[in-house]
Amino acid sequence: MYISDTLTKSKVPLETIQPNVVKMYVCGPTVYNYIHIGNARPMVVFDAFRRFLEFVGYKVVMAQNFTDIDDKIINQANEWGVDWKTVADTFIAECYHDAEMLGIRTANFHPRTTDFVEDIVNAIAKMIDNDFAYVTPNGDVYFSVRKLTDYGKLSGKKLDELRSGARVDVNELKIDPLDFVLWKSAKPGEPVWNSPWGKGRPGWHIECSVMSQKLLGDMFDIHGGGEDLIFPHHEDEIAQSEALTGKPPARYWMHNGMIIVRGDKMSKSLRNTFMVREAVRKFGKDGVRLFLLSKHYRSPMEFFDAPLEDSSKAAARVHATLYRFTEKYNYPLVPKYDEEMNDYQTRFIEALSDDFNTPVALSVLFNVVRELNKAMDDGNDERALKMYHLIKRVFGNMLGIFDGETEKVQRVESEEMQTLDTLIRGIIEMRNNFRKEKQYEMADKLRNLLGESKIRLVDTPEGTKYELY
Ligand SMILES: [Zn+2]
Fold first, then answer.
1. pLDDT tens for residues 71-112?
2. CATH number at residue 386
3. How remote is the CA of residue 216 from the centroid of ligand 1, in Å?
C-alpha cells in the first residue's frame, strides 16, 4: 500500500510502527459555527480511508480533536452574550449531528483542548526547561524556532523570506518573528487557566501535539488534515514534538486539497461556505460523499452546485438499481466469490492502495452497477446477487456510500426537493417582478405566503435566496 507523504514529498509504502495497526490523528474543526463542505472534506476522506484500512486488515486507532478555545469562539460568545463554553458545547453537538448525517463514524477519541490544559502546561514547562521556549515579561510563552536547525522542513518554506514578510504586533515580545505562541497571557474578560507563568490559555498548535502524544503515543503512524494546516500548524507540531520527545510526532503526513469557491478557499472568514446540513438535505448523504470522493483527495476541488447535483443524480441511479434488486429479494444472502467478483474487488482495492485513488475505485463501482442492471435484465439472479454484494457490502462499506437502508425514500425526497425548488424560485421571480413594478403589497403577500410555509427569503447582493426553517 502506498500513500503520499507531505514531509518527504513522495509516494511511500505504508510501513506501520506496530504490525497491522494504524494510529492516525486528524485535525478537527474549531467549534464556533456549523461545519461546511470545506470542513467535511477531510472528515469524509479520512473516514473512508479508515474504513478501507480496516477492510484490508488493519486495526485503526483514530483521534480527531475539537479546538474548543480560540479567539473566534471567544468573539462569537461575546457577540451573542453567552459564555465561550456554551458556544463550544453547542457546535460540538451540532458537528456530531452533521457528521452522522454524512455517515462519518465517530473516531476512537475526540479530545477537546480544554480537557488537556494541565498536560499542555506540563509540556510547555518542559520546553522552557529544555530551552526550546521562553517567557516574555507579560506572561506569554513562545517557542524558539532558532533552536531547531530544520524548522520549515514540512512546508518547504524559506525561513528568511518568511521572516522578512512576517508582521509582528508591537505587543508580541518575540525574539524571532517566526517564534510562535505556546501560552497566551490573560486578556481582560477572557477565559483563563492557571500556569506557572500566570493566568492565560493555550496557543493553538500545542494542543494537537499534547493530545496526540497523550492518546496515540510519542510517535504514531499518520497525521492528517487539510493542506491549509501544513504551515504553520503542522510545521509547529513537528517543532514541538521534536522539542518534547526528540522525534517528529508521526511517520507520515497526509493532506487533502482545499474546496475552492471562485478562486478562494471555502472558509467561514471569507463567507463563501456551503453548510453540510444544507448540502445533505438538498443532495442526499450519498450525493455529498460521492461528490467529495469523486476527485483524488490531494487535488483541489472547485465547488459548484452542478457537480454536486451530478453526484446526487448518480447516487440516485445507484439507489434505484439497488432498490430494484431488494424489491425482489428482501433478505439477500452471501454469494460465493467467483473469478468475476475477485477481479472487480482486486481492481477496487488496487486503486485505493495506490494513494487512496477514489476516482478510479468509483469507476469500478459504477461498472458493477451497470452489470447488476444487466444481470437483472437477463434474469440471472445468481450473478445479480454477486454484483449487489460487491456494491453494497464491499465497496459501499469501504467508502461509506450506498450502505444505508433508505434507498427509495432518499430518491423520492430528492425528486420532491427539486420540484419544490422550481416552485419556490418561480414565486421569488413573481415577487421580484411585483417589486420592480412597485406593487409592494403583492410582493409582501408572496413573502408572507412563503413564510407561512416555513420558507424564509433572504435578499442578497447576488439576488434573492431562500432557506427552509
Ligand atoms: Zn491540529
1. 999 999 999 999 999 999 999 999 999 999 999 999 999 999
2. 1.20.120.640
3. 14
ipTM of the prediction: 0.98
User: Separation of 43 CA from ligand 1 center, angstroms?
Assistant: 13
Task: Identify whether residues 375 and 455 lie together within a single domain.
Answer: no
Distance separating alpha carbons of residues 390 and 331, to the nearest angstrom = 15
CA of 114 to the centre of ligand 1 (A): 14
Whether 266 shows a pLDDT value over 60: the answer reads: yes
Gap from CA of 49 to ligand 1 centroid (Å):
19
* In the predicted structure, residue 417 carries a pLDDT above the cut 80: no
What total of structural domains would you count in the chain? 3
Q: Are residues 352 and 434 in the same domain?
A: no
Q: Which residues surround ligand 1, an ion (CB under 5 A)?
A: 27, 208
**Mean pLDDT value across residues 297-305:** 90
CATH number at residue 12: 3.40.50.620
Per-residue pLDDT tens digits for 166-212: 777 767 789 999 999 999 999 999 999 999 999 999 999 999 999 99
312 lies in which domain range?
Answer: 304-405
Centre of ligand 1 to C-alpha 206, Å, is 8
Average pLDDT of the segment spanning 363-387: 97
Same domain, 324 and 434: no
From ligand 1's centre to the CA of 6, what distance in Å? 15
Assess whether 245 and 377 both reside in one domain: no
Whether residue 382 sits in one domain with residue 418 = no
Give the distance (Å) from ligand 1 centre to CA of residue 214: 14
Give the closest residue to 183 by CA, choosing from 240, 234, 226, 225: 240
Domain annotation covers residue 267: no
Q: Same structural domain for residues 368 and 392?
A: yes
What pLDDT does residue 405 have? 65
In angstroms, what is the span from residue 224 Cα to ligand 1's centroid?
9
Answer with the one of 405, 435, 458 that is the final residue of a domain. Answer: 405
How many A from CA of 194 to the centre of ligand 1?
23
Dist. CA 222–CA 25, nearest whole Å: 6
Distance 235 CA to ligand 1 centre (A): 10
Same domain, yes or no, for 320 and 399? yes
Q: Does residue 99 sit in the same domain as residue 224?
A: yes
Distance 60 CA to ligand 1 centre (A): 19
Residue 264 CA to ligand 1 center (angstroms) comes to 22
- Ligand 1 centroid – CA 223 distance (Å): 9
Average pLDDT over residues 310-330: 92
